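TEACHING EXERCISE
Course module: macromolecular assemblies
Task: Read the component lines below, then compare them to the predicted structure of the full complex.
Student: A.B.
Group: 4
Components provided:
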Amino acid sequence: MTQVPGDAQAAAPRRGLARWIQPVGAVVRGVQLGARTMEVDIRLTGMILALIAIWVGFGFASDGLFLTPRNLYDVSVQSVPVAIMATGMVLVIVSRNIDLSVGSIMGFTAYMMAMTQAQWIPQTLGLGYNGAYIWIVALIVGILLGALIGAIQGGLIAYLEIPSFVVTLGGLLIWRGLIFKVQQGQTIAPMDNTFAILGGNLPQGSIGGLLTWVVGIIICVGIIYALIASRRKRREYGFPVRPQWALVVLMAGGCATVLGAMWAYNSYPLPPLLATKYAVAHAITEPPGGLIIPVGLAAPVLLLGAVTLGMMFLATRRPFGRYVFSIGGNPEAAILAGINTRRTILGTYVLLGILCAIAGAVQAARLDAGVTSTGTGYELLVIAAAVIGGTSFAGGIGTIPGAVLGAVVMQSLKSGMVTIGVDSPMQDVAVGTVLILAVALDAVIQRRAK
Amino acid sequence: MDMATTTQAATAATVVTGAAPLVEMRDIFVAFGGVHAVQDVCVDLRAGEVVGLVGGNGAGKTTLMRALSGAHPADSGEILIDGHPVVIPNPRAAKALGVETIYQTLALAENVDAAANLFLGRELKTRIGSLDDTAMESATRKVIGRLNPNFKNFKTPVVSLSGGQRQAIAISRAIHFNARVLIMDEPTAALGPAETEQVRNVIKQLKSEGIGIFLISHDIHDVFDLADRISVMLHGKLVGTVNKADVTTDEVLGMIIMGKLPNEVTQKELAQLHG
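Instructor-supplied answer key:
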């Protein structure tokens, strides 16, 4: 990027938009340079910075209300269903397809999982409500169903070459409609006690203080090991590696972020009423001022972390992921390279179906019920999360962590606006604006890079 | 020069190698809807030989080769490799038989880097089954480095590379997996003079290593420089195959434009070619 146009512009009187574009441009250039030296994803870095800005901004605007551990706990839990599905939506969009049925699949599988644990096993089969196996059977039913639905839709798209928009638009109507044909669409409750852990509701939905630190330390060790191992391997082959200071900054930054998040989770004490219940249940005498029990990491967030890691592995470390991206980059080239593109496309839909079921499980557990409206309208949130996260509709471009961050950004905006008293319609206006802005900013940066 | 000599020369060559041709395509027929793109074409290729495939636009050269590369299987006809009949229903099958192709469009995935393209569909994996990107990058650096020592951008998506660099990736991909048969569709059409020279050297080197090459080209001088034999196509049919040593460029031009073998062309017609 040359300095000349910038200087010329600086001399001219700045009006309107131009006044804003320059400082933004300078920040973008700074981030670009930093990210390039550190060899980290520029777009991801930008999103993390944007997320921090949103949090700090709402923190100030809400007099600290937004940045309380309790609110951050809720934001993180509420982001989970959309984020889980967005990780799969990335692969579908990257390979130049779309899935409009995710909300309906999520709703349908959630309802069927609720039926399994609240009706079929205990009543139809007469096995009662307390089986230790109930949660896993319900989950497996949901996941198999999600995979089957994904396989049907993906098969039609990949092998019969029916446009994905059409197939999944049909799916959106079909799976939602079918919910009402099971048990007349009644609300199915309550969920199995173990299954309910997935929902992240207190007190059972988090892993507690000690385990939270253990998880945090394991992740930090993982980060350090991964960075060192890849560096050692590149050294062995005599490839250039990032400078030592960048390595240290990356390790320190990664670990500080992880441990900071764990610290935030552990700074959220169990609400007094629940703490008293806990004390009674465990025969502990409550000290004056109440028992302080750290809530710790939410179970669904831990699940999201595992899903994200798994999907990142599939997308970037397995041939499957490489095929998905190459199909998105040039479908003809993928076929000529001998890739079974149909099976690959089918795979993306099966995966997304499974992820919808997992998201459905989290949502049913959180609501403690199977209801007909579960996941309604989520298809648009999921697509928006993927797109805010840098997934391109032109195909071939997108990242899993970007989509997860996209979901967290959207949930943070919504939750933040609630804390400062913005009404629901205006929340949608804001999220929609951010969606367009994110893509517009991307387009501008891409054009400048060329 | 007449047909008898041509046939004799071909027979002699077969006797010298003492085996069936590396590739034989017999009576190949390909139609698109009602259009007969390739009709009853027979061509063959021996190890260490370059066969130039020439003809005007729409002559069927690329379609014929797409039948061999598995990109678009023939409707009828027979393909023999080492004298054994083979079926090539898709590109994977062709690669398994040692037939590699450099397409005119290069067929690169624009959004991924050189190594990902070079190993596309044949990725190297670690013991736990994950992609071994470091090993792939290392191999890519070696094979591309031989073709183009100035190639440095191993981590950037192919879309931001120059035409010559992209060509280097496509060629590397074709030769890295021990190809026995190489199909090159207009390999120099989009290149500058220096890069064209590099490609010519590559072809000569591969030929000396015993690889058989089908070279599709518009550039008759390219073909005369590199090919041992020249097969000419017109309107989906084979006009004929000639030994390069036995013909002049004008005679081949006559085959391309008029569809007539050298011995069928009159001096007057030949003169008309030059306007």
